[in-house]
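Researcher: Structure prediction, please.
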Amino acid sequence: MFAKQMIAAAVALIAAQGAFADDKLVDSVAIDYGNAAKVQMVRFSAAKDWSARWFQSNGTHLSGYWEASAGLWKESQYQNISGNTAHLWDVGFTPVFRFENDNKKGIYYEGGIGVHRLSKLYDNDTYRLSTHFQFGDHIGIGYVFDNNWEIGGKIQHFSNGGYKKPNTGVNFVEIKAAYHF
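Model: Predicted structure follows.
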């Protein structure tokens, strides 16, 4: 049910984009799929590009975007019991720095750290997160094609920053598909 709601939200964002053709509400939408130790995640996001360009040289620059996201996690060893499944969702907001070509096409490198709110405490396999509030940081690499489609990969870490124990953290390896308007 939640996955259907997330797909509907992504479609609504794409449809709404046409209504704001001159003054874009979002510059891109994306879907990520990730795996960690006995947990899978799917996340939908919308991004708004920054207008700033730092260190512009030789056709490249450093810029970035604001990302708002919502994701669904499926734990497959909930409370360290094999075969015991549970679901949780997260809502996040992340500023992301991206090193890219001036035309925003081709290869890019990025990194960001943001905040996430989990719907319940993560308790899967031998990993525990003791708070609903988590930091989500990532590094990634990808490619934006001439037709505005993007593919990428990233490594993402979730942790509460050590302000409450246990805090084993969760590390996802993710693939991303996005479309830029």
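Model: The mean pLDDT is 90.
Researcher: Thanks, that helps.
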